[in-house]
Amino acid sequence: MSPPHNHAHHSSAGAHGLTDIAPAAIIHTQAGPAGGSFVGNLLAGAAARGASDLILVADCPPTCFVSGTWLALEDRPIDAHTLCATLRDLLSEEQQAQLDEHRDLDLAIVLPDAGRYRVNLHYQRGTLAAAFRAIPADIPDFESLNLPRHVLSFADYPNGLVLITGGTGQGKSTTLATLVDHINQTRSAHIITIEDPVEFTLTSHRSLIEQREIGDDSPSFASALRHVLRQRPDVIVIGEMRDLETISTALTAAETGHLVLGSLHTSCTAQTLARIIDVFPPVQQPQIRVQLAASLRAIVCQTLVRDRLNESLVPATEILVATSAVRRALRDNEAHLIYSMIETGRTHGMHTLEQSLADLVKAGRIETDEALAATTDRGRLARILGISARSDDALTAAMLPKDAHTTEIPWAESSH
Fold first, then answer.
1. Statement: 26-135 belongs to CATH 3.30.450.90
2. Yes or no: is domain 142-351 CATH 3.10.450.50?
3. 350: Cβ contacts below 8 Å, ≥ 6 apart
4. N or C: which end of the chain has fewer CB within 10 A?
């Protein structure tokens, strides 16, 4: 399935959807003919429409995600029996047992003539459902991502912690892959990635690359990281920093001379820093702030918004560079000062999400209403745009359709 737009961002399930439950696995051509052809045909149809995702839910039409919009792939719904049979036909007996036990299963599949996909199988209302995410065969060029150019330079750090963050489906995996590819093309290094599942298949060029998949190659992120430092890596890539042990080991690795690239499901810098610190018990947090201040290099938060110029998606970003002032604020437990440092740090390559959104609005790339919907600080963005600084409630009301202020419930008419 091809990417939905030029910047080719891919990640987990919607514009503003990847779950992380059971171990992942790779299926190549062993998918049964019924399931493989049925799903393959649907994926081919979605790819023809430029979709990045395909969702299959019982008694609903197949639905795909195209440039920020969910569209029915065909009018005919899929009945629950057919859907269950065809999805299970993709799985080995062991995977079926895992699905029955956990009720969720993450895996990557390769279907003949259809390509490679990241898949989550799950149950809803007692019936099996699936979410497919296309994984491009090739890593996109960094320029096609429409990210600030200096983000690529974050891969040139010899050590430290670089975080790529954002909500589900905001392109974190693709951005990480382009940074790894940049290292691979420009310097000699030993790169170890820890992923669930492996998405982009990387080929060693100037660097030696190992890709470890959770489930097949290691039971968990924490277990893989416990042993990775004995494998003499220069660069460690963590597909998702989920828990205390993973975050703790990542900080230690970054402190001890390794470049650690990781992702978190957080939407802004403040939330990212809080997530890292708050996962530890209060008694440990002062030491963690010191570790984080010493090891942090940069944070890139990204949010995809619709580009009105070509009906694709374009990233709005918030970028933090760990200057001496930022490090001091972290050490002294004054993280509340960091937003203003980002806001006034353009000369250091920093900007806030609101500044990025405002730049896109002023360039005619996105609509004002979409920019307001993409930020949690609408008042601040309104001031940057020169809109009268109404309260968040007033701005929310202004964004609603005119008839949304009535008390009528349209779908309740059938009950009368």
1. yes
2. no
3. 319, 320, 321, 341, 342
4. C
Closest CA to 165 of 261, 252, 255: 261
Q: Token pair for residue 132?
A: 């497919």
| Residues 25, 214: Cα–Cα separation, whole Å | 8
Distance CA 49, CA 326 (A): 45
pLDDT tens digits for 30-71? 344 445 588 888 998 898 888 889 999 999 999 999 887 899
Alpha helix stretches (DSSP H) within 296-349: 324-331, 338-343
Task: Kindly give the interhelix angle for 285-295 and 244-255, rounded to the nearest 10 degrees.
Answer: 50
In angstroms, what CA-CA distances link 150 with 143, 147, 156, 232, 321? 11, 8, 10, 28, 11
- Please report the DSSP string for 168-207 in residue order: TTSSHHHHHHHHHHHHHHHS--EEEEEESS--SPP--SSS
Cα first-last separation, the chain: 45
* Stretch (H or E) spanning 94: helix 93-102
Type of residue numbered 103: R
Q: Which amino acid is at 6?
A: N
Task: Give the residue range(s) of CATH 3.40.50.300 domains in the chain.
Answer: 142-351
Separation of alpha carbons 53 and 42, rounded Å: 11
201 by Cβ neighbours in 10 Å (0-12 / 13-18 / 19+) ranks as: middle
pLDDT in tens, 267-311: 999 999 999 999 999 999 999 999 999 999 999 999 999 998 887
User: Which residues of the chain form CATH 3.30.450.90?
Assistant: 26-135
Instruction: Give the pLDDT of residue 110.
Output: 83
Length of the chain: 416
The helix/strand/coil state of 355 is helix
DSSP 253-265: HHHTT-EEEEEES
Distances 200 to 41, 176, 220 between C-alpha atoms, Å = 23, 10, 19
Both tokens assigned to 225: 């990281």
On whether the CB atoms of residues 305 and 374 are closer than 8 A, the answer is: yes
Q: Is the dihedral of CA 123, 218, 238, 313 positive or negative?
A: negative
